[in-house]
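WARN retry 2 of 3 for item q-0093 after timeout on previous attempt; input resubmitted unchanged.
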Amino acid sequence: MGRLKEGPERELVNRYLTRARDQGRGLAVTGFDVVEFAESRATRPQDRKIEEAHMIRQRLSDSVFVALDAKGQVLDSEAMTKKIQVLRDNGSRSLSFVIGGADGLDPDFVKEAQSVIAFGAVTLPHQLARIILAEQLYRSMTLMSGHPYHRA
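OK item q-0093 returned
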């Protein structure tokens, strides 16, 4: 949810996603598309979350999705990579990562997710969450391909 304005945040996301795309080609991992939705203008937070979940559901169709939520499981980079590999190897044709709006994601929508992950206990604005996700996707591709980027 939400749109990134032109500027350094968008450039950083694009840089990591381009790198992920390049690394992913030889790994049968493609795509790395960003779909942005305008945040709901409903008055009540719960109504906004429900409306936003509806918009996302329509776009996901049959895609497996991972919800990013502060209450989710905190994974290190290797565990996130393993999760992506398992989904790929089990035949998932499409994997989406969903970042909620300012109010977060609708709890019923989160229950539909294949997995729920968090980037720690802090609450992040969607711009930073998107940058971190893009970098972690790139890192996952480098781990899967044996590239030396990951040095932990």
